[in-house]
Amino acid sequence: MGCTETKQIGSEERSVMAAEEGLGFYMNKSSRVDSIIRKYSSNSLINHTHLTRIAEMLNLTIINTAPNTRVEEFFRKIANKDGFYNLKDLLIIGILLSEGEKEEKARLIYQIYDENLTDSISLSEIKSKMLMDLAGHSAKSLPVLVTNEQTPFSNVLKNEKYMQDLESIMVNAVNKVSALFGNLENLNEKKFVEIFSNTIGGSLVTASGWRIFMMEVFVAEPPKKQFNNPFRKTPK
Question: What InterPro entries does UniProt report for this protein, alphabetically (predicted)?
Answer without folding.
Answer: EF-hand-dom_pair (IPR011992)
